[in-house]
Write a structure and sequence with these properties.
It contains 27 helices and no strands. The protein is mainly alpha-helical. The longest helix has 25 residues, at about 50-75. It is elongated and about 90 Å long. It starts with 12 loop residues before the first helix and ends with a helix. About 40% of the residues are buried.
């Protein structure tokens, strides 16, 4: 079992101890036929015992105790009781993470590796209280990691939905499908949804990231994470968490990125989602060696996909200067100097000079805009205005989408400004923007809570409303 698992329950001690102070009326659940007499006897024998006594009981009949606890979780809905059983299980796994294997051993009630146990915990994720969600989430992660892994297609990164396609013909050499795949897929979908819209801020993002950092060791989980759209969520989280006070969260987010860089399709998605710039910014500020190392390792992997042309993005984001500065430091981790040397040489070999519009295109497609000189340069707009017509105004359409949907106020403000520049410099700019519903989008932002977004929206609306000759008069 991976040593990483030992960190999953690090912050749960006092919270779990408080829950375990409760007295649960186990008899009432047997009377109501929610648990069996055997379940009751096992729970009574285990509950309120010392650490050593519980460990001994698990050594004697671990799977039977697991069945008793899962029976309560499956049949009892009372919040206090569900929380209590989850606390018992967390305590069990804190004391010895290898106890997770007991969930997969055969018992009187189930065969070995039965995926039904995973479903019990997945249902608990839909409960409203965060204690239940968080503990079920962490327990699920450990159960998925500790399950017996046959030489299955899933373990080798081939999903069951792809196994019959010609591109995945290699799946036939594996030992069939993993019965847990459907449940793992549901769980990863839930984790990604928590990253997008946390049910309990800020704990949900930290918990989901920790679990994903553990699960993505497995190639099948990486494929599911890619399918769920998780790769596109990571750069925004990295940007919003980039502070030395968030070192553990940054480490685990960057660990997720690094693990996903081993999939070409994921690396390609990172190339257009702003991941490179986000990682470089982390490397610039990182104080912890483990954060710096995993970030640079992810950048190295991305750089090795030469066909994606990401060296120029790294140069544009300032990585060569960071590498040069960091090479002067003394490192406790002996692998970091070698990593820095490799990046230094590779960046020098792979640098290509991009046209100014290509740089602009990459920035817009990354989904994050900043006030670089390119945006305010009259020469840039005069020289490149015709290029906005390429691919049916693709870049202009993406720019409008950013204005409408971005959660970054700076991106919305710069987007409004750029739209105004397009209107000013393109002969038919105001009509093209109107046809693409740009006027309505920008007018909605005139009431935006951020003063800079409001200001740029107002200036852009003025440009939409004014004729070309009046625009030229204003710009004199």
């Amino acid at each position: 079992m991976a040593t990483y698992n030992n960190t999953l329950f690090n912050e749960d001690g006092s919270e779990v101890a408080a829950v375990l102070q409760r007295d649960i009326p186990w008899d009432t659940y047997m009377t109501a036929r929610l648990i069996t007499d055997k379940d009751l006897q096992l729970i009574r024998k285990y509950d309120k015992r010392s650490d050593d006594q519980r460990s001994s009981l698990l050594d004697e009949a671990g799977p039977a105790y697991i069945d008793a606890f899962v029976s309560v979780l499956r049949n009892v809905t009372k919040e206090e009781t569900v929380q209590y059983v989850l606390a018992l299980l967390v305590k069990m796994l804190q004391e010895n993470p290898k106890h997770a294997r007991l969930f997969h051993h055969p018992s009187d009630q189930r065969p070995a590796g039965a995926p039904d146990i995973l479903q019990v915990f997945i249902r608990l994720l839909q409960r409203q209280d965060w204690f239940t969600q968080e503990k079920a989430c962490k327990i699920l992660t450990l159960l998925i990691e500790s399950r017996p892994k046959s030489y299955s297609a899933f373990s080798n990164g081939v999903l069951s939905s792809e196994a019959s396609t010609s591109s995945s013909a290699a799946a036939s050499v594996y030992a069939g499908e993993d019965p847990a795949e459907q449940h793992i897929s549901s769980f990863i979908d839930w984790l990604v949804s928590e990253l997008r819209k946390p049910s309990h801020a800020p704990k949900a993002v930290a918990c989901s990231t920790s679990c994903l950092a553990a699960l993505l060791h497995e190639r099948g989980c990486r494929a599911l994470f890619l399918r769920a759209g998780g790769v596109q969520v990571l750069p925004g989280l990295i940007r919003s968490s980039n502070s030395p006070s968030n070192s553990q969260l940054l480490y685990e987010l960057s660990l997720c990125v690094w693990q996903m860089t081993y999939i070409h399709q994921a690396a390609a998605a990172m190339g257009i989602s702003g991941t490179v710039k986000a990682l470089v910014d982390v490397a610039r500020l990182a104080q912890k060696e483990k954060v710096f190392r995993v970030t640079m390792s992810a950048l190295r992997n991305l750089l090795n996909y030469t066909e994606l042309g990401l060296a120029s993005d790294m140069v544009e984001a300032g990585l060569p200067k960071i590498v040069a500065t960091r090479q002067l430091q003394t490192w406790g981790d002996s692998d970091i100097p070698e990593l820095l040397s490799y990046l230094d040489e590779s960046l020098k070999a792979g640098i290509t000079v991009l046209s100014s519009f290509e740089k602009y295109r990459k920035e817009v497609l990354s989904g994050s805009l900043d006030w670089s000189p390119m945006h305010t340069s009259d020469l840039f707009w005069k020289t490149n205005i015709d290029k906005f017509e390429e691919k049916d105004f693709q870049i202009l359409r993406v720019l409008l989408k950013l204005i409408e949907a971005s959660r970054e106020f700076r991106t919305q403000a710069v987007g409004c400004f750029d739209l105004g520049q397009f209107i000013q410099y393109h002969p038919q700019g105001r009509y093209i923007v109107a046809d693409l519903r740009g006027k309505e989008l920008v007018m909605r932002l005139m009431g935006h809570p951020d003063a800079e977004v409001q200001k740029q929206a107002l200036l852009t609306v003025q440009k939409i409303m004014l004729t070309k000759d009046k625009l030229e008069f204003l710009s004199v």
